[in-house]
Design brief:
The structure is a single chain. Helices cover 68% and strands 0% of the residues. It is an all-alpha fold and 125 residues long. α1 packs across α4 and α2 (32-48) runs antiparallel to α4 (66-86). It starts with 9 loop residues before the first helix and ends with a helix.
């Protein structure tokens, strides 16, 4: 069976990243500051694909540059996985906790169809 999002556990992806780093002896360069900077830089590279384009141009671009955007998203994921390894974060548990927190901050009754940040309606009845 080919691997996909649907059948690949996060730990397996973390293991691939860690193996890659260890084989190259790169851990010596990975301190929290530089790893966080690397994540931010890669996220910025995702943004470059959308800079200066109007909605119609973006729609067309998404169809013609899917691989390049996917490559940048994978670079972001690489650093997220590496950071979670170094900082001992269980991503699945942290994700589930964060989603429960988001459900409280963004109750359906107040948030549905709204792009407002939760602070906008937090104290409103």
């Amino acid at each position: 069976m080919k691997k996909s999002d649907k059948n690949t556990p996060i730990q397996e992806l973390k293991d691939l990243v860690i193996k890659f780093v260890k084989e190259r002896d790169w851990e010596q360069f990975h301190n929290p500051k530089d790893v966080a900077i690397s994540l931010s830089l890669e996220a910025s590279e995702v943004l470059e694909h959308f800079q200066w384009k109007n909605p119609a141009e973006i729609e067309k671009y998404l169809h013609t540059h899917k691989k390049e955007i996917a490559d940048e998203l994978v670079d972001v994921l690489y650093w997220v996985l590496l950071m979670s390894y170094y900082f001992k974060v269980d991503l699945i548990k942290a994700f589930e906790i964060k989603m429960r927190e988001n459900e409280k901050k963004y109750p359906i009754k107040k948030a549905k169809g709204s792009h407002a940040k939760y602070t906008h309606y937090q104290n409103k009845q």
